[in-house]
Amino acid sequence: MAESESGQDKTEEPTDKRKRDSREKGEIARSKELNTFAITLGGAGALLAFGGYLAETLMTLMRMNFTLSREVLVDERSMGAFLMASGKMAIWATQPVLVLLFVLSLVMPVVLGGFIFSGSLLQPKFSRMNPLSGIKRMFSLNSLTELFKALAKFCLVLVVALVVLTNDREALLAIAKEPLEQAIIHSVQVVGWSALWMASGLLLIALADVPFQLWQTHKKLKMTKQEVRDEYKDMEGKPEVKQRIRQLQREASQRRMMAAVPEADVIITNPTHYAVALKYDPEKGGSAPLLLAKGTDFLALKIREIGQEHKVQILESPELARAIYYSTELENEIPAGLYLAVAQVLAYVFQIRQYRSGRGKAPDPLNKDLPIPPDLRRDS
């Protein structure tokens, strides 16, 4: 069972964050045996597919370069031309095989694990230069596994090669009796099929290596219970940090709330335990009054002090204050059930303003029994 450096068993499945961080570091499953198998098989297949063309081009090059006239031999410039022409023919002849191998070398590494570019892999790591770490890697389980795979590949390819050469023995002996051109083409075919069978033998190594690499990578990613808890704390935040953040958010919200109190039309109090500040803007067209601020005890006292400082009308209505406090969130409209009660309060406040400005008579005292629905009532 896998253990961490602290001695705890890695029994927990890796989290999404663990997998994501590992991928960013380039620590994903890769199978060199799968790449070797695919490139070898592709090269053998390309040799069979384009072997005839390669053989014909080779014979053309031999004729062109071994049957030279006297004029060409004595002309120094013709040698360069022959060399350039031979190089172009060789490139065009091998281009299909080289292109196929190039594509396979790019595609196969990303088949298992997908494409990834990690800058951390390009950074120099001086720990790799430590001789002790190098010796430790030489005798690690991974090194022993790679040694076993190398021996297995050697033995497997050797067995397949012996079987193939034994079966093709008559064909190989017959090449010696064939005309040169036919012998060259036949040789390419024999080599191609032999390489194809030997490459197919590597399939067994690849089929064993791919699940092993996936298992080994998953094993490295597994976590201890403590690592899972630590990661959760890092993602969610430590309790004391979260508490501090909530405290700062509350303080910021209270500062905004207190700054809005001077804009209120009326402050309704309990009179001491509750205080709510309301504002009504008739120009918005049918909108209900907004709750600008609310608080209990100390906050209620501060709301009243700021209201008095800015000459905001303060009225006592315990039931209405409690109903608004519990039913309405900051900067939201009051519920429809309180429209009538708040309308009476605002009408009384506007009448007081007109009276104080000398444009009306003194209003009658505010009705103490305001219409508050039972479902919105709150006991003190």
Secondary-structure map with pairings?
Blueprint: H1 16-24, H2 32-66, H3 70-74, H4 76-111, H5 131-138, H6 141-167, H7 169-175, H8 180-221, H9 225-236, H10 239-260, E1 266-269, E2 274-279, E3 290-296, H11 298-309, E4 313-316, H12 318-327, H13 339-356
Parallel strand pairs: 1-4
Antiparallel strand pairs: 1-2, 2-3
Helix pairs in contact: 2-4, 2-8, 6-7, 6-8
Question: What do these coordinates show?
Answer:
One of its GO terms (biological process) is protein secretion. Required for formation of the rod structure in the basal body of the flagellar apparatus. Together with FliI and FliH, may constitute the export apparatus of flagellin. A 4-stranded mixed β-sheet has the order 3-2-1-4, sandwiched between helices. It contains 13 helices and 4 strands. It has 380 residues and is mainly α. The two termini are 62 Å apart. α2 packs antiparallel against α8 and α6 (141-167) packs antiparallel against α8 (180-221). A hairpin with a 4-residue loop joins β1 (266-269) and β2 (274-279). The protein has helices spanning 16-24, 32-66, 70-74, 76-111, 131-138, 141-167, 169-175, 180-221, 225-236, 239-260, 298-309, 318-327, 339-356, and strands spanning 266-269, 274-279, 290-296, 313-316.
Could you name the key traits of this structure?
380 residues, mainly alpha, four-stranded mixed sheet, 13 helices, 6% strand, elongated, transport, bacterial flagellum protein export, cell membrane
